[in-house]
């Protein structure tokens, strides 16, 4: 199975790497120590520290595997180096308005960096897919669960490079 590239900003990649390093270098060794101590206390079937520690270790190992796969598939794209700053591509901050003139500003980032409350939407989100390649003044229709909605691109910005 071929995995599609995981486009990500340099800051997003650094956040994934920091989480991986923290789990591997700090949390996992601490849990291993607790589990070793709890195992030495005797009956493991009713030992809460042992059972919780083993469960937490499985969670950490699962998350480490996920992070390793995401980082391996990552293709770091620096939006500050965008060549065509007049169109919407990965890393663009876009101001849009709907037909009711409600304005909204979104930044298109990697799927691992999304945060809807701060306006960071994933590259594969319906709105981001609709905006790809758009220029200022373009109208784009987005298929939403409530039905299609049309947006006009008002401004496009990229980080300074």
UniProtKB/TrEMBL annotation:
<feature type="domain" description="Transcription elongation factor GreA/GreB C-terminal">
    <location>
        <begin position="85"/>
        <end position="158"/>
    </location>
</feature>
<keyword id="KW-0251">Elongation factor</keyword>
<dbReference type="InterPro" id="IPR023459">
    <property type="entry name" value="Tscrpt_elong_fac_GreA/B_fam"/>
</dbReference>
<comment type="similarity">
    <text>Belongs to the GreA/GreB family. GreB subfamily.</text>
</comment>
<feature type="domain" description="Transcription elongation factor GreA/GreB N-terminal">
    <location>
        <begin position="6"/>
        <end position="76"/>
    </location>
</feature>
<dbReference type="InterPro" id="IPR001437">
    <property type="entry name" value="Tscrpt_elong_fac_GreA/B_C"/>
</dbReference>
<dbReference type="Pfam" id="PF01272">
    <property type="entry name" value="GreA_GreB"/>
</dbReference>
<dbReference type="GO" id="GO:0032784">
    <property type="term" value="P:regulation of DNA-templated transcription elongation"/>
</dbReference>
<dbReference type="GO" id="GO:0003677">
    <property type="term" value="F:DNA binding"/>
</dbReference>
<dbReference type="InterPro" id="IPR006358">
    <property type="entry name" value="Tscrpt_elong_fac_GreB"/>
</dbReference>
<dbReference type="GO" id="GO:0006354">
    <property type="term" value="P:DNA-templated transcription elongation"/>
</dbReference>
<keyword id="KW-0648">Protein biosynthesis</keyword>
<dbReference type="GO" id="GO:0003746">
    <property type="term" value="F:translation elongation factor activity"/>
</dbReference>
<dbReference type="InterPro" id="IPR028624">
    <property type="entry name" value="Tscrpt_elong_fac_GreA/B"/>
</dbReference>
<keyword id="KW-0238">DNA-binding</keyword>
<dbReference type="Pfam" id="PF03449">
    <property type="entry name" value="GreA_GreB_N"/>
</dbReference>
<keyword id="KW-0804">Transcription</keyword>
<dbReference type="GO" id="GO:0070063">
    <property type="term" value="F:RNA polymerase binding"/>
</dbReference>
<protein>
    <recommendedName>
        <fullName>Transcription elongation factor GreB</fullName>
    </recommendedName>
</protein>
<comment type="function">
    <text>Necessary for efficient RNA polymerase transcription elongation past template-encoded arresting sites. The arresting sites in DNA have the property of trapping a certain fraction of elongating RNA polymerases that pass through, resulting in locked ternary complexes. Cleavage of the nascent transcript by cleavage factors such as GreA or GreB allows the resumption of elongation from the new 3'terminus. GreB releases sequences of up to 9 nucleotides in length.</text>
</comment>
<keyword id="KW-0805">Transcription regulation</keyword>
<dbReference type="InterPro" id="IPR036805">
    <property type="entry name" value="Tscrpt_elong_fac_GreA/B_N_sf"/>
</dbReference>
<dbReference type="InterPro" id="IPR022691">
    <property type="entry name" value="Tscrpt_elong_fac_GreA/B_N"/>
</dbReference>
<dbReference type="InterPro" id="IPR036953">
    <property type="entry name" value="GreA/GreB_C_sf"/>
</dbReference>
């Amino acid at each position: 199975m071929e995995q599609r590239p995981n486009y990500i900003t340099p800051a997003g990649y650094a956040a994934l790497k920091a989480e991986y390093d923290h789990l591997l270098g700090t949390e996992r060794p601490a849990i291993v120590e607790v589990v070793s101590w709890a195992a030495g206390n005797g009956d493991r079937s009713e030992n809460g520290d042992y059972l919780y520690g083993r469960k937490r270790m499985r969670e950490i190992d699962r998350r480490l595997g996920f992070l390793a796969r995401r980082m391996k598939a990552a293709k770091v794209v620096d939006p500050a180096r965008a060549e065509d700053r007049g169109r919407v591509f990965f890393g663009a901050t876009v101001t849009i308005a709907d037909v009711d003139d409600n304005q909204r500003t979104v930044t298109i980032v990697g799927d691992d960096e999304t945060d809807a409350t701060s306006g960071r939407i994933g590259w594969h989100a319906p709105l981001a897919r609709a905006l790809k390649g758009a220029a200022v003044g373009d109208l784009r229709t987005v298929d939403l669960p409530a039905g299609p909605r049309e947006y006009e691109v008002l401004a496009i910005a990229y980080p300074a490079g």
